[in-house]
Prior knowledge:
- By secondary structure, the protein is an alpha+beta fold.
- The protein has helices at residues 4-7, 11-17, 73-89, 105-109, 124-138, 175-179, 198-206, 244-247; strands at 46-49, 55-59, 157-159, 167-170, 186-190, 193-194, 212-220, 223-231.
- The protein has a domain at 152-231: PDZ domain (Pdz3 Domain, Roll).
- It contains eight helices and eight strands; from the N terminus they run ααββαααββαββαββα.
- Strand 3 and strand 4 (167-170) form a beta hairpin.
Amino acid sequence: xxxxxxxxxxxxxxxxxxxxxxxxxxxxxxxxxxxxxxxxxxxxxxxxxxxxxxxxxxxxxxxxxxxxxxxxxxxxxxxxxxxxxxxxxxxxxxxxxxxxxxxxxxxxxxxxxxxxxxxxxxxxxxxxxxxxxxxxxxxxxxxxxxxxxxxxxxxxxxxxxxxxxxxxxxxxxxxxxxxxxxxxxxxxxxxxxxxxxxxxxxxxxxxxxxxxxxxxxxxxxxxxxxxxxxxxxxxxxxxxxxxxxxxxx
Length: 249
């Protein structure tokens, strides 16, 4: 659970939290990583799920320049409001079911439970490390996976830190520019991932192909439309040496 004393000084945040069932996960041992899909290298990440284990959104983000410039208290609050509004608007309806097979970090390394005498704490970044180690054993490791959860800037998008799915700038000549995305657009679905935050945008990009096309649904001046982004090989690559999982490779 969370420490109420940390949030009580902010009545707005405290009121929002009261509408959720907050749970703090400090150890990835036994956690279903097929459900908790987020950037495992972050210092802090928040996921929003309903009682049926369906994911509404995720919040968190950083880059090589700063651990905090992509997150803000207003950004967190706005994401929480969007999650609550989406949940209430569905009136009990379920999100589209996505077939998945439960997978824990122990399953990835083929040891469950961990041996006696070993550390029982699996850090978040170790999920990536275990996956890559298993892929190397199987001969399926793809070096491009080292550049996972790419930044929106990799396709030419700068997102609003306080409204994480709102575009504030588009780089001229970028994939986003060629697709017709404009400043002020609100991204609603990126490559099949509903986007209520910048972390959701990044997760949609994470699932995108190494090269090829994928769809982005957006809202502009109240109108819904879908555009297609085309990316070339190597589009994911950026400074990733800050990632603990990458440094260990």
